[in-house]
Each structure stands twice: as C-alpha cells, then as structure tokens.
Amino acid sequence: MRSAFRQSVIVLTAGAAVAIIIVLSMQLLSSRVITEESNQSEASGPNISILTSDAIRDQSWGSFAFTSQVMIRDEFGIQAELHPELTTETLRDYRTAKEAEDGADMIIGHGREFAATFAEYAPQYPEVEFVSLHGETNHDNHTVYTFDVAPTEVLAMTAATIKSESGSVGVLSKYGDWRSRELVEERLQELDTELHYEVVEDRNDTEKAMEALERLRDAGADVIYSRGNTFNRYVIQQAAEDDFYVIGFIDDQSYLSREHVLTSIVNNVPLVYEKIMTDYLSEEGLTGGTVELSAEDGVFYLAPFGPMFSEADMDELKKHDSRVLRHLYDGSR
Predict the structure, then answer these.
(1) Transmembrane region positions (predicted)?
(2) What gap in Å lies between CA 86 and CA 52, rounded to an integer?
(3) Same domain, 319 and 187
(4) I need a labelling partner for 30 at 20 to 30 A (CA). Which of 74, 171, 186, 194 fits?
C-alpha cells in the first residue's frame, strides 16, 4: 500500500516537474521570439556604428557620442551602436574593419583621429559610408563634417586679456588638436598680451595635464584656456583653489566654478550628427568631401560671460568687438 502510494507520489511529482519545465520552456521561447522580433524591428533601418576613442564620461568629448546616439534613436527612430575607448590605432583599425564586415551601412568616427583610419578602409568597403568629425578625406564614400571655432576662440581670448593682470594667458590642449593658434596669437599681439602654449598627448591624461598647467602658471599665465574635456574639471578646481581664471571647453563649464570660469567654447555636437543623418537619409545622400559647418548652424557658440565682468569691462570689450558687447547683454550667439 505504502509502496503504491510512493509510486503515485513519484509519478505526480515527476509529472509536475515535466509540466513546469514545459511551461518555463514555452515562456523562454516566447521571450526569445519577442526579443528577436524586437531586434528585427530595431534593425529595420540602416545599420549605423559610432566609434570614439574616448570613454563615455560626463562633460567629455566622448559623452557627446552617447548623446548623439540617443538623438539618432529619438529623432530618427534608428538604433546606432556605440563603441567607445578605441584609444589606439590598432583598436580603431580592428573595430572599423569588424563593423564594415558585419554589414554596417554607415560608420561615424567621433574625432579627427578616425579620418586616417577611414582613408585606409573606405576603398576596401565602397558600399559603406564613412563619416568623420574633422580630418581630411580623399574618397567618395568618406565625408568629413567639420567646423572652425577660431573666430569664437579669438573672441573668448580677447575677453581673457581684459581679466588678465599679468598680461599673460595660457592654452592647454591635446597635441595636434588646436588649429586656431596663429589667429589667436595675432590677436593677442595686437593687445600686447603674451601667449604660452602647452600640450598633452592624451586628452584623458589628467596627471600630465596638471603638470602642463603648472608650467603655464610658472610662466606667468593667469588665464588658462583649457581644451581638455576630461581634465578640465581638475584645471577649474585648481583655479578655484589658486584663484585664477579659466575658459572652459566643449560644454558651458561655469557650473564648476562660477567665479573662475570666464566663459566656455561650447560645441553642440548632437547638431552635427543631426546634420549627418539628415544628409545621409536625403535623396542625394552623402557625397563625400568636406562639409563645413558654421556658427549659424548652431554647432558651436560662446557661453555667457561670468559675473567677474564689470560694466567697465564691458565698455573695454566694446572697443575691441561690438559682438562681444551684444553677447554680454543678451547672450546672442
């Protein structure tokens, strides 16, 4: 009797286990089907990859690759893959080739360092559209989108001369990344202001950047235009401690120290991506060559000046550039 009861229990238990397994399997299969259908839906548009050498951090150049990825999804309904921290030529080569082999329709390089990589791979993958932010191109399927912030930098540095007590300002930048030096130097010479210039190899190398900052300060610079994305927050922190002024970069960085950030050169990078996507999806498509964007396109502008600028400073700035005065009063861009 007991033996028969045990057998019944075993049979019922085994049956229940089998039923549970069947239910779980059906749920898993259902989930898999939904996921596959979702993926197919997401992949129905063009296959786009964004490559950046930077990490995705707040207030960094790399962070704009992420915000641009989100913009592409929200504004165009297209899923783009983002591949960060491609810090070496080998990594950039590998990822570019892999994305092309995996069927990417368009590969966007988030910085001029990708232009040289795309120059090599564009002829090998003529069916792929390559786009780089800044750089040079010689291929029909490689388009460069660029913008020249030199006039805005000259404007900011003109304002810097008003707040410099030493008559000496400094620029801290990544090696090979600052293209406005000659124009800025010419302007500063007109204003009897000395320019000191220091570079670092990596915009993420905070230690080297702080060493370069110390050299600029030792040379007498009391206003620093820091073009370092990641290391800017440390430069501004040092400015707050040692009481000198900074011009921010990429984003309006006055929130880091309102009393020490004169202004910032702001890049609205998602607008560049919006232009890329609009051109790519247009009837004409991308045509290769270089697309030069301007301040009128809204892709860069000067952030509002800080509270350290007095009415007397405004009057002095008016003598140099009427556009500066308009900016001070109404924030016009």
Answers:
(1) 9-29
(2) 6
(3) yes
(4) 74
Give yes or no for a contact between 327 and 302, defined as CB atoms under 8 angstroms apart. yes
Q: What does DSSP assign to residue 304?
A: P
- Report pLDDT digits (tens) over 43-93: 468 999 999 998 887 667 888 999 999 999 999 999 999 999 999 999 999
114-151: per-residue pLDDT in tens?
Answer: 999 999 999 999 999 999 999 999 999 999 999 989 88
Q: Are 142 and 131 in contact (CB under 8 A)?
A: yes
| Distance, CA of 144 to CA of 227 (rounded, Å) | 22
Q: From residue 144, give the alpha-carbon distance in Å to each of 41, 99, 171, 292.
A: 30, 19, 26, 8
Proportion of the chain in helix, strand, coil states, percent, rounded to 5: 50, 20, 30
Whole-angstrom Cα Rg for the chain? 27
Number of domains in the chain: 3
Q: In this structure, are 97 and 244 located in the same domain?
A: no
225 and 166 assigned to the same domain: yes
d(CA 202, CA 231): 10
Is 117 within the bounds of a domain? yes
Give the pTM: 0.77
Find the domain containing 155 and state its range: 150-267+303-330
Q: Is 274 within a domain?
A: yes
Q: Is residue 34 situated within a structural domain?
A: no
Summary mean pLDDT of the chain: 85
Residue 6: is its pLDDT beyond 60? Answer: no
Gap between the Cα atoms of 56 and 83, Å rounded: 10
Please indicate, yes or no, whether residues 142 and 283 belong to a single structural domain of this protein: yes
Q: How far is Cα 223 from Cα 277, in angstroms, rounded to an integer?
A: 38
pLDDT at position 281 over 80:
yes
Residues 133 and 180 in one domain: no
Instruction: Supply the pLDDT for residue 58.
Output: 66
Cα 127–Cα 43–Cα 100 angle in degrees, nearest 5: 30
Q: How far apart are CA 252 and CA 249, in angstroms?
A: 7
Judgement on whether residues 16 and 66 belong to the same structural domain of the protein: no
Whether residue 214 is found in the same domain as residue 288 = no
- H or E segment and range at residue 300: strand 300-302
